[in-house]
Amino acid sequence: MIVLGIESSCDETAAAVVEGNCVRSDIIASQIDVHKVYGGVVPELASRNHIVNVAPVIETALSEAGVTLNELDGIVATSGPGLLGSLVIGLQAAKTIAWSTGLSFVGVNHLRGHLLAARIQDEDGTPVPEFPYMALLASGGHTGVYHVRNWNDIQCLGETRDDAAGEAFDKVAKLLGLGYPGGPVIDRMAGTPGEEVLFPQALRQKKSFEFSFSGVKTAVAQHVGHLDGPPTDEQMHAIVRGFQKAVVEILVRKVVLAARQKQVPRVVLAGGVAANSGLRQHAQMVCEENDLTLFAPPRKRCTDNASMIAYAGLLALEAGERSGFDISPKANWPL
Ligand SMILES: Nc1ncnc2c1ncn2[C@@H]1O[C@H](COP(=O)(O)OP(=O)(O)OP(=O)(O)O)[C@@H](O)[C@H]1O
Ligand SMILES: [Mg+2]
Predict the structure, then answer these.
(1) Are 280 and 299 in contact (CB under 8 A)?
(2) CATH number at residue 147
């Protein structure tokens, strides 16, 4: 099956063509420059930019894949969770194409896309995980541990009680004046060797798979408030290293605990925070210590992209799932 997927749940307008679990094209129009001056995503601006970007992104995805609409077997779009004004643009584009061409159409859960992204085969032949696997999904809006038994049999074992991990990266970067999005800049700074400030890891001793990141954010703010003046470069690096360590250690601890408890031999990283070098390294080390095999998708497939949506939608279409043209975007859509 060859499927066109469209993703517009937040601030990336993306379209991709996949054939089975191989990517034929993967196009993203990022809006980071639009939102960076505001220190976060402005929903109204995101919607307006999706309108401008959606048709060119689809056209480029089709031409790079070397296919026409006639050669597709279906079209899919993210239908939630996400910003309603953003979701509606990609979803409406997909419905319009499906209505006018007669192509099969299905709405896709964005989180399912993230959780299945590791199963997309890359050209370099890196092995992809078999089912079942234990997945850590850590993104801008969600953080949780998911037992993925099959593409359509996914159980959430625990989520964050407050902020998502990516949100914590973004908020801490904002309070330190490091810009938006915070993840990549903190990742770079934390990768330099040196001292680190010790920050708390909430719910560390709890056997549950819940997280909480509002405390570490407050701890960073309080630490900065107690300094004699604005942090020096050295102090800033020590704060960032300590913050990243606190977040990364708790994320890895919980997903490994879950894999051991459920006797699942594989761990998968997913979501924007899975692009973090510190997380990938620490997860690799702890998985090796626990005889678990780690699968971390390439960084471009951790942050929002349309290939993961196209692939998740392709599996649904292959299983005979179809959505009607009356489906609406959903701001919240738990798996
Ligand atoms: N290298 C990195 N280290 C840490 N965090 C990162 C890195 N790269 C991106 N992020 C974070 O990932 C988040 C974006 O991830 P993603 O695109 O999956 O989120 P989203 O789609 O906005 O949220 P959701 O998927 O929950 O709807 C941002 O919070 C960003 O700071
Ligand atoms: Mg996402």
Answers:
(1) no
(2) 3.30.420.40
Does residue 206 have a pLDDT over 90?
A: no
Instruction: Report how far Cα 166 is from the mean position of its chain's Cα atoms.
Output: 9
- Joined tokens for residue 71: 């050669």
135 and 197 part of one domain = yes
- Would residue 68 count as lying in a domain? yes
pLDDT of amino acid 26: 98
The tokens describing 137, both together, are 């999904």
DSSP state of 211: B
Q: Can you tell me the mean pLDDT for 208-212? A: 97
Tell me the ligand closest to 270's alpha carbon: 1
The answer on pLDDT for 123 being more than 90 is: no
Model pLDDT, residue 39: 86
Report if residue 59 sits inside a domain: yes
278 lines ligand 1 (CB under 6 A): no
Q: How far is the CA of 28 from the centre of ligand 2 (A)?
A: 13
Q: Is the CB of 170 within 6 Å of ligand 1? A: yes
Range of the domain at 240: 131-297
Are residues 318 and 21 in contact, defined by beta-carbon separation less than 8 angstroms?
A: no
Does 271 contact ligand 1 (Cβ within 6 A)? yes
Cβ neighbours for 329, distance < 8 A, ≥ 6 positions apart: 79, 80, 82, 84, 87, 88, 91
Backbone angles phi and psi of 107, in degrees to 5: -85, 140
Furthest-apart CA pair in the chain: how many Å? 66
Residue 93's nearest CA partner among 146, 45, 56 is 56
Identify whether 25 is part of a domain: yes
Residue 335 domain-assigned?
Answer: no
What is the predicted pLDDT for the residue at 319? 98
CA of residue 74 to ligand 2 center, whole Å: 22
